[in-house]
Amino acid sequence: MATDTRPIGVGIIGFEPGRSWAAVAHVPALKGLPEYQVTAVATTRRESADAAAAAIGLRSDRGFTSAAELAACDDVDLVVVTVKVPHHLELVRAAVAAGKHVYCEWPLGNGLAEAREMARLVGEAGVQGVIGLQARCAPAVAYVRDLVASGEIGEVLSSNMFGTGIQWGGWVDRPNTYLLDPANGATLMTIPFGHAVDAMCHCLGEFASLSALTAIRQPLVKQLENGEIWQKRTPDQIVVTGTLQGGAIANVHYRGGTSRGANFAWEINGTKGDLRLEADGGHAQMFDLSLSAGFGRDRTLKPLEIPAQYRWVPETITGLAMNVAQVYRRLSDALAGKQATGMGFDVAVERHRLLAVIEEAAAIGGVIGLETEG
After folding, report:
1. Can you give the pTM of this predicted structure?
2. Minimal CA–CA distance to 130: which of 159, 99, 106, 113?
3. Torsion angle, alpha carbons of 198, 219, 168, 171, to 10
4. Which residues in the chain belong to E strands, given as ranges?
């Protein structure tokens, strides 16, 4: 395992040069953090494993074709799972069996039951399990959380959030056709909605009760490359309205595609002030978030600068890698005994449970109360 003199060795499962999330976010984040070193990579084929190792700058014998081989490597302290959702459980199981810490992309599991199983596995093994819900680590979100907690906007009265998914609209590109099938666990609800509602709950608290409405408004989708028509079988409209545990009313509306108007806007109304976060897209975990606010006698919202203390990583880390790097910094602090990550697999279970309740509420058309899970 890593020592005071050796960086934390990271083995990445799932890497395609130039286009995968591991390539555009994880590796740039890790290369910008001195406490980490990418030491291994695994894909499913020898050719792709060799290409991945070469792209990262690893020795050829550090490109593996199985998760078990990667996890068994002495140079790997942390296994990072960045493949499609249906494979998460088996890969997390392999990492934990080897006694390695594991960072898994969100969604953690293909449903609540798998998420609970993975939380059990890391708990019994005594290793760190970290979930990639990086929107809560965005500097703007971290600042909003503190503004709310410190009472700067008074009692929170309501929260209204709108976002778009880019995908799940009227078109699809070939690599993302799997998003149209709910069996794959990668939907408008689990990905952009899931990331954004996690940020909201992280700042304002969990839902006490909610009602939900979902719909498929564009059931036929055209593939960009060849015009082929695909059937979309997962909702492209999600509306959730409820009461948060602190009493505030919350409304979240996500839809597929993009908007000619706002693509992400989140407004928090309090007795002493208002906050508004905006972005160019509804993936709050990916897009830069701007913050504006009004307090006391202010009659309008004005841009609010985010203090430097909310960026935990070097300024050289930018773009898609930045929020991911923030998660990695939380993890390295935890491994050094400084503080808990606040992003364990228990957090993922709680979020999966919320999504399961939303789906149930949408199915029955009623209001459902949420009790704290033991």
Report:
1. 0.96
2. 106
3. -170
4. 8-13, 36-42, 63-64, 78-81, 101-105, 129-132, 156-164, 171-172, 207-215, 220-223, 229-231, 237-244, 249-255, 264-270, 273-279, 290-295, 302-303, 368-369
Q: What is the DSSP letter of 81?
A: E
**Average pLDDT score, the chain:** 96
Which tokens hold the place of 151?
Answer: 């009472």
User: How far is it between the farthest Cα atoms of the chain?
Assistant: 64
Residues of the chain with pLDDT under 70: 1-4, 372-374
231 neighbors 220 (Cβ within 8 angstroms): yes
Q: Is 43 in contact with 49 (CB distance < 8 Å)? A: yes
Length of the chain: 374
CB 14 within 8 A of CB 82: yes
DSSP characters over 113-157 = HHHHHHHHHHHHHT--EEEE-GGGGSHHHHHHHHHHHTTTT-SEE
Q: And the tokens for 276? A: 């508004």
C-beta neighbour count of 56 within 10 angstroms: 21
User: 300-354 pLDDT, tens per residue?
Assistant: 999 999 999 999 999 999 999 999 999 999 999 999 999 999 999 999 999 999 9
First-last CA distance in the chain? 32
Separation CA 102–CA 288 (nearest Å)? 26
Which pLDDT score is estimated for 366?
83
The first and second tokens of residue 373, run together, are 């899970």
Give me the residues paired with residue 160 across strands.
Answer: 251, 267
